[in-house]
EGF-like calcium-binding domain-containing protein (Mytilus galloprovincialis), 354 residues
Amino acid sequence: INECLRSNYICDDQCINTNGSFYCKCNNNNSSSAEGMTCLDLGNDKSSVAVVLGTIIPIIFVTVAVLFVIFLKRRHNNQRAQEEINLATENTRAQTPVTYNLPVSCTLRKQYIIKSSRDSYQYITNCTTIDKKLVFTNSTNNRLVVVDADCRSVRYMPLYHVPEYITKIGSTTVGVSCTTDNVILLIDISTYSIVHTVNTSGHCYGISYNNNHLYVIIGKTPTVMNLAGKVKRTLPSSSHKIKHIIASRKYLICTNSTTIFCFSMKGSVKWMFKYEKYKTFRGITTDQKGNVYVTDEKTDTVIAVSDDGKHREILRKSDGLNKPIGIYFDKKDNSLLVCNCKCGMAYTFDVTFT
């Protein structure tokens, strides 16, 4: 009997009859299935495998790439966090402020009205004293406000740029940084004239003068330049978003909104001050003893800070402060000039060390 002729035994390709049985044989080197009756097309299987692999491999690659990027980002964040921890550890003294034993006190000398009756609104961002005059930057009206120390006159000097920060340079000259315009103006207050203009490579923020050089925050980088605007050197870029700067012979004092930093001239942190209460640090100045004075806009205070972490609120709202920003210490007569940013009031205080 030819078993291959029975209808219930069907092979896909060839049926080989044997004595009392049969078996199936596949053509073209195809492989038979487990039951031996069905042939598998290896070519089609290989194509299917190729399709599957072609779909899976790109997905695996993209997944690995995404995971690698996440890993790098987390490692970067961890490194920055570790840097902050190290910085805080190195400066434990300044991170734990003491609110007593800082022998500094202030007494009101004079108050000034620096807002014109014609101005419905003005914003004063910084101040300094020079040649018996008080000079303020008025950013909303693009001008300097110059007030005689004896209150006899107020004069306004219009500018083509928006003044933000100011520093005293000589007996009659000030340097003014105009942040959004990327410009520094050197202005002679005695003649009310611009004597030199310096174009900067980016937004210029805090500005300070020391030893014939300007120290300016350009972008995030403290930059040292001569009075002609030629860059002499830059300090390591800061990740602390500093905006204000004061240069002394050995150190740079800088602030962001929450922290005071003391940097060496090479950019390393010598000490820092941070206190939970203060979150809106603005203007900054120093006295001849190394004390730092900073305005805090939200708490309406001026805080004096020493390099060992001691601090004291020497001026408050009760002293006339209302959103203070600008501040300048005159080392010649131990006076402190403070200006409110919106109400048009400024004050000078006599500072005593007890």
